[in-house]
Design goal:
The complex is a heterodimer of chains A (about 140) and B (about 850). Chain A has one domain: Rossmann fold. Chain A is about 55% helix and about 15% strand. Chain A has five helices and five strands; from the N terminus they run E-H-E-H-E-H-E-H-E-H. A five-stranded parallel beta sheet of chain A has the order 2-1-3-4-5, with helices on both faces. In chain A, about 35% of the residues are buried. Chain B folds into five domains: about 1-115 and about 595-630; about 125-305, 2-Layer Sandwich (Dna Ligase, domain 1); about 310-425, D-amino Acid Aminotransferase, Chain A, domain 1 (2-Layer Sandwich), CATH 3.30.470; about 450-565, Phosphohistidine domain (Glucose Oxidase, domain 1), CATH 3.50.30; about 655-665 and about 680-865, no CATH class. In chain B, a hairpin with a 5-residue loop joins strand 8 (about 350-355) and strand 9. Chain B has about 850 residues and is of the alpha+beta class. In chain B, about 40% of the residues lie in helices and about 20% in strands. Classes of the chains: A alpha/beta (about 140), B alpha+beta (about 850). The interface of A and B includes residues 53, 92, 98, 105 and 119 of A.
């Protein structure tokens, strides 16, 4: 399972990646949204954990929309220190898997990532099933 | 006839079960649905947990801030959206009306949370000559009051100007500080003193390092130059915090914020930022939390007032603060600036001036004043030792005391209520009013001591003397504080012992049972806050620090100005009243209003005709509705798709049993082909735990009924259609288990009772939960309610949280590890079997007691004896 963490707090990024690696998650990180898009273009992942308020041209919500638009199967978990009711709602409406407020419990985050990944896998096997059927019918 | 038989045969012949690729497709579809179901349960569970958290907060035992309210609203928003989204997936959009209901409710909550006061006046700076009481929102209460005294009461007040709340907001917005501050609050555990300490330091640093916008800077500079021109000399000013809401009758904010004395032009802006930053001092943060004041309701206006070269200064109360019936004016006075009195760091003179008849001094206590605060030549103030003979002299003359008292009476008459006034006497003898606010007065506590107590108290006195600051009686361990670092370790319920009554200690008053200091006056900041928080306090208690050691168990008695060894109990009527400060506060009220859109449950009965999306009035309703429908969707999948793998099968245990099982995912070892599932093939952890409880003790039939019991059962059976055989409805007609390895939903209808157990038990401890619903029973209402109470008592004893409404019982438990959850499930399994007929005996007290002890004994010996 490949997870990309996007956060401008590099201290936080280092810690979370270390902890996730300990749990056998292939985790890596970038510090802003534009870099996240570049990274996914080169090296696709299963789940993105995204901070809402980061430096850079676009807000976290914009990045979320970009990701969901270009790679609908990738699941995005919003993880933010900025408690904004509007942003939470906008995030969920734009297709976030979940929206968590820092400080998040590491176990909770880990389980959310697993659930998100399972959702992606199920979607993929469903698509595969449909493809197989199409082949058989052709 | 033959045709007819043929017809019926065809009519009722089962459609052949799907096989091959279609079956594979159904399998994947089901698996995906099951995943949505799991996510829905997860969202449901977190929504219910948040509701519990909000209810507990509303019980008012613990302080909480706006960040608690906000983060809970965010969390429940997200849970609800996940819930509805997953139900949409599960039901193919059948219940999408829920989105509209959600929108409606959410908008109501959002308005409550985001409401913001907008000041319309956009001036940055206003001269004191143009300020009055009505302008508190703009210039803060302190400056508004000072302007009132100058312009309406016509007393002498130093010249100056106010830097407004609008200026503060402009500064914060310019640097985009608010969202960063909010973020830090959310990340902080407010019950942890050390974390609060870091928070206060970090936020203050953020503010001090931020930049004052150029246009604001220019306006302040212009006002300062105008002040210099008026005074005709280079002026030094006092910069005083003047926050909105500060100094009102309900909230004194005593000493929460910073004031800077003797500030020169070169330091003006730095000090201005320091004062704005003091909005986030440790004392201010804890004070707001404890009083439930919203962070964003406080905008820091700052008063900029010419320094008075004070010969003497102090504080006076227009009445006795500890006795509403005493109308004497109380004047505390010291040499130099009034800071000595306000800080509570120096002993000072006390003048009591009577006003019944001609004004005259009724009491004088002249202390040895070892030091005084004076302005430094260039900047700031300093405490200077007083070496000459003046230290033993009265700091004001009798004449000055009487002039002060006259002013006090005038101000009280003007405001119509007792006042707390800070004043200074200049070297030329003129009196200046520096500050004025409503005085909090307390009822004297009348204590009647029983003889035994009098004897006990006399025996145990460790130290006595001083003055009562706030009346009361308290026991606890002494905890001596010397430096700010000591505040971090201060234990809840301890008695604060300090040398000086410094404002610094105010942040501990929500934890302290009582306060004892060696020095300090009743006019100091700490005294005000102690009274506000109703913490019993004695100041001026000589040798307190040397005679009381940290860890000593002591009892404080303000009535006798004494401290006793050990814990001494007092009769209830003497004990101090309970503190619940947060209740009724702005933050509390917002949560209360918000909770009205979240917590009430209106959709009680899933079989009632009003159980519809459009009738969801609260988040709880939506949660309840979505959960109910999700279970039905899962249940009906196999039937609707004619897919036997995902249809229910009969449990086979030695013989086919009257229990049906629907395997959701991995609840069974091998997918059974036929119409039975064997008990030994079941791998569901929660189902097996329930089953162990069900079979732990053989059921010995209904208990013997008293004559009335049977009649009541007969009566109800004939009036409730659901109970008549043949009138079966949906899946509730039988006993069903819906299972996966870690999940089980168990619906049982045994006799007249309907119960549902739903449980998730896995290694994910935080996600574990059990819900138990129990309803109905044939017997009259009163007996059913009594039985429900009976069951509730048992469940409560086993750590369940139980809610009762009429004869509905809902019990929940969550977040425990697997072993613990398995034991609870065994108890529930046992109870669903054994408590079902109990309403028959519910009018008979001795039978109730008998069954209660039998059940307790069963649980102890049979249900929980086997470790699995």
């Amino acid at each position: 399972m490949k997870v990309l963490f996007v956060d401008d707090e590099t201290d936080f990024l280092d810690i979370i990646i270390k902890r996730m690696k300990k749990r056998n998650i292939d985790a890596s990180g970038v510090s802003d949204g534009e870099k996240a898009i570049e990274r996914i273009e080169k090296d696709p992942c299963d789940v993105v954990v995204l901070d809402v308020k980061m430096p850079g041209f676009k807000s976290g919500i914009d990045i979320l929309k970009d990701i969901k638009c270009r790679w609908p199967l990738i699941e995005v978990i919003m993880l933010t220190g900025h408690a904004m009711l509007d942003a939470a709602r906008a995030g969920m409406e734009s297709g976030a898997f979940d929206y968590m407020v820092k400080p998040a419990d590491i176990d909770e985050l880990y389980y959310k990532i697993k659930d998100a990944h399972q959702k992606k896998s199920l979607q993929e096997s469903k698509i595969k099933g449909i493809e197989n059927m199409m082949k058989e019918k052709v | 006839m033959k045709k007819l038989v043929e017809f019926f045969k065809n009519r009722f012949k089962k459609e052949p079960d799907v096989e091959g690729p279609d079956a594979e497709e159904l399998r994947i579809a089901f698996k995906e649905r099951y995943h949505h179901f799991k996510l829905l349960l997860n969202a449901n569970n977190s929504a219910l947990e948040i509701m519990t958290g909000i209810e507990q907060a509303l019980a008012g035992k613990q302080p909480f801030g706006m960040s608690f309210v906000k983060s809970n609203c965010i969390a429940i928003t997200v849970s609800l959206m996940r819930l509805i989204k997953n139900l949409e997936q599960l039901s193919e959009g059948k219940y999408n009306q829920l989105y509209a209901r959600f929108d409606d409710i959410w908008n109501k909550i959002s308005v409550l949370i985001e409401q913001k006061k907008e000041g319309k006046d956009e001036r940055f700076v206003i001269p004191l000559t143009a300020v009055d009481r009505t302008m508190a929102d703009l210039v803060g209460s302190k400056m508004a009051n000072l302007g009132e005294i100058l312009n309406k009461v016509n007393l002498k007040v130093p010249s100056g100007f106010a830097i407004t709340a609008h200026a503060y907001q402009y500064f914060i917005d310019h640097n985009d500080l608010q969202s960063e501050i909010d973020r830090r609050f959310i990340a902080t555990d407010i019950t942890n003193m050390e974390a609060l300490y870091t928070l206060n330091a970090d936020i203050q640093k953020l503010i001090i390092e931020a930049e004052i916008p150029k246009d604001l800077e220019t306006e302040i500079q212009n006002a300062y130059h105008a002040l210099e021109q008026e005074m005709g000399v280079p002026v030094a000013v006092a910069l005083r915090s003047s926050a909105m809401g500060e100094d009102s009758a309900a909230n004194s904010f005593a000493g929460q914020y910073r004031s800077e004395l003797n500030v020169r032009s070169e330091n003006l802006f730095h000090k201005y930022k320091e004062i704005m930053a003091s909005k986030y001092s440790l004392t201010a943060i804890t004070y707001r939390l404890n009083k439930g004041i919203r962070d964003e309701d406080i905008a820091m206006s700052v008063g900029c007032i010419a320094m008075v070269d004070a010969r003497s200064g102090g504080v006076m109360y227009t009445r006795n603060p500890l006795d509403t019936s005493d109308s004497s004016v109380f004047i505390n006075s010291a040499w130099g600036l009034p800071k000595a009195v306000v800080d509570g760091s120096v002993d000072c003179d006390l003048f009591v001036v009577g006003r019944k008849g001609p004004i005259q001094i009724s009491f004088k206590d002249i202390k040895e004043k070892k030091n005084q605060f004076l302005c430094f030549a260039d900047n700031g103030v300093c405490q200077f030792d007083i070496t000459e003979h003046t230290k033993d002299q009265p700091s004001i003359s009798d004449d000055e005391a009487m002039r002060l008292a006259e002013l006090a009476v005038r101000m009280e008459q003007y405001y119509g209520s007792p006042q707390d006034i800070e004043w200074a006497v200049a070297r030329d003898g003129s009196i200046y009013i520096l500050q004025c606010r409503p005085l909090q007065q307390m009822e004297t506590l009348k204590m009647d001591y029983p003889d035994e107590l009098i004897w006990k108290t006399k025996e145990n006195v460790i130290v006595s003397g001083g003055i009562a600051i706030c009346p009361g009686f308290a026991s606890g361990e002494a905890f001596a504080v010397n430096s700010p670092g000591d505040t971090v370790n201060f234990p809840k319920g301890a008695i604060l012992v300090a040398r000086q009554a410094l404002p610094l200690w105010a942040s501990l008053l929500n934890k302290a049972a009582a306060v004892l200091t060696e020095h300090g006056t009743f006019a100091g900041h700490l005294a005000n806050v102690a009274r506000e928080f109703k913490v019993p306090a004695i100041f001026g208690l000589k040798d307190a620090m040397s005679k009381l050691k940290t860890g000593d168990l002591i009892t404080v008695d303000t009535n006798h100005l004494s401290v006793y060894a050990g814990k001494i109990d007092v009769p209830a009527h003497v004990a101090a009243p309970e503190k619940s400060i947060i209740e009724g506060s702005p933050v509390y009220n917002i949560l209360l209003e918000v909770s009205k859109h979240i917590i009430p449950l209106n959709l009680l009965d899933p079989y009632a005709s009003d159980f519809k999306p459009e009738n969801c009035k609260t988040f709880h309703d939506i949660t309840r509705f979505a959960h109910e429908k999700s279970v039905q969707e899962m249940f009906n999948f196999g039937k609707e798709h004619n897919f036997s793998e995902r249809s229910s099968k009969q449990l086979f245990y030695k013989v086919p049993m009257q229990w049906w099982i629907l395997n959701l995912d991995d609840g069974v070892r091998e997918e059974a082909k036929g119409k039975y599932i064997r008990l030994e093939d079941i791998t569901s952890v929660p189902m097996m735990a329930l089953w162990d409880g069900i079979v732990a003790v053989p059921w010995d039939g209904p208990p013997p009924i008293d004559g009335k019991g049977l009649a009541a059962v007969m009566f109800r059976s004939t009036t409730n259609r659901d109970l008549v055989p043949g009138m079966k409805s949906a899946y509730t007609e039988r006993n069903y288990f819906m299972i996966s390895k870690n999940f089980c939903s168990f619906t049982s209808r045994l006799g007249y009772h309907f119960s549902i157990v739903e449980a998730l038990v896995s290694e994910r401890t935080a996600e574990n939960y059990i819900t138990f619903r129990f309803k109905g029973g044939a017997a009259d209402n009163q007996r059913r309610i009594r039985r429900i109470q009976f069951i509730a008592d048992i469940l409560t004893d086993h750590s369940f949280r139980v809610e009762l409404r009429e004869d509905n019982l809902v019990a929940r438990i969550e977040g425990f590890d697997m072993d613990f959850m398995i034991e609870r499930l065994k108890i529930l399994g046992y109870l669903t079997m054994h408590a079902r007929q109990l309403d028959m005996i519910m009018s008979n007290e001795s039978a109730i007691n008998y069954y209660r002890s039998k059940i307790d004994n069963d649980i102890k010996t049979a249900v929980l004896s086997k470790k699995n």
